[in-house]
Amino acid sequence: MATRSTIMDTNSFRAEHADALDAETRKLTDKRSKILGESYRLFYRNPVHLVKGQGQYLWDATGHKYLDVYNNVASIGHCHPAVIEAVNQQMQLLNTHTRYLHENILDYTEQLLKTVPNEVNRAMYMCTGSEANDLAIRVAREYTGGTGIIVSQESYHGTSDLTSGCSPALGSEQPLAATTRLVPAPDAYRIDTPDLGDWFANEIQKQIDDMQAHGIKFAGFLADSIFSSDGVMPNPVGFLKKAVDVVHANGGVFIADEVQPGFARTGDAFWGFARHGIVPDMITTGKPMGNGIPVSGLLARGEVLSAFSDKIPYFNTFGGNPVSMAAAQAVLNVIKEEELQAHSQRVGGLLLNELRKLMDKHESVGDVRGAGLFIGFELVTDRDSKAPNKQLALDLIEELRNNHRVLTSVAGPYGNVLKLRPPLAFQEQDIDWLVGALDQALNKLKA
């Protein structure tokens, strides 16, 4: 049997679960397998058939209400009326591509660039985070003349040929590119070092040296600044700066993959990288940007982008179209008007404190860490050894889904970290539902 990937298969429905399904769910899973092929994955041993969403809540086909603690696609909340209205209005006027003039893309870009450091002053648009990271790798290679890309050990950056070759989280059956090098994740919980920044910078340098030894010129370091697929590693604040300094000292560029930590998610800053006091050479965005409408972007220093854009044309039929830009503009407006960055910081801080109280009640909770509404909840067999407890994590998310109607999933190389990442519509009153569900589920699984 092929080795299963960590990101796609850890929390997934598989054929051996089929006999336990009700007739209607079995009918749908069988139909999916027959006509969509075998690459697609469903969450949970008993897949959820969702039909409606509003804010931080979802409803299934039988009318059951769920608390969504995983979905950053609908970043400001499912079916946000501002996005619905913006998309509806623009759809009634025009939807075409960027080879015609249109104000939406220009107005949005001017506002978006105000949220990033002044050195980052150009933008291009695509439909997916995969496309954004793919283009960023191409730009990095044109600018540096190198091909080597460094990523963290469990990172995920996309599904295109270039990005899947830089996405070890897709598993051992997806080969990495020969020019890709991996660094261990900056895991402050497990790595015993006086300075995580120095340690991580040294790991970057080791891989640059290895590239050189193999005749590969270094092009850049691509990282999600909260290392979400690695198990959510936000702290200590600022540790990433030394690694980026090493990247620049070796002639490379830093690409900040902000698909997950961007757009006010971490609370401390609008962008995840900003918590570390660094200026990326490129910033990539994706899912949260349009709240469910396919749109993504690449923001870059002008001189870096020029190495590519001054000689190579780029066209993406739907990238930057007026409807997607209307959705993106609505999301940006809502983040500002509803003060969602401050909300994420405040409510995320309250949630983090309540989750940490569970450590006093459950020895299996080894660590709780996070920034804003992005939290890693790590489960271990015992705290002294910190041995990961993958089975408990998988049983826990099933218990949360089945008996408490809380939806989340796992992350990290051991599959033992619950990635708690609700829409930014998550409210203070939802904390009791989530923390109470975790407490009761852990008590039951301990019995």
From TrEMBL:
Keywords associated with the record: Aminotransferase, Pyridoxal phosphate, Transferase
DNA repair in keyword set: no
InterPro entries: Aminotrans_3, Aminotrans_3_PPA_site, PyrdxlP-dep_Trfase, PyrdxlP-dep_Trfase_major, PyrdxlP-dep_Trfase_small
Keyword DNA-binding set for record: no
A GO term for molecular function: pyridoxal phosphate binding
Names of required cofactors: pyridoxal 5'-phosphate
Similarity-based family: Belongs to the class-III pyridoxal-phosphate-dependent aminotransferase family.
Name assigned to this protein: 4-aminobutyrate aminotransferase
Upper lineage: Bacteria, Pseudomonadati, Pseudomonadota, Gammaproteobacteria, Moraxellales
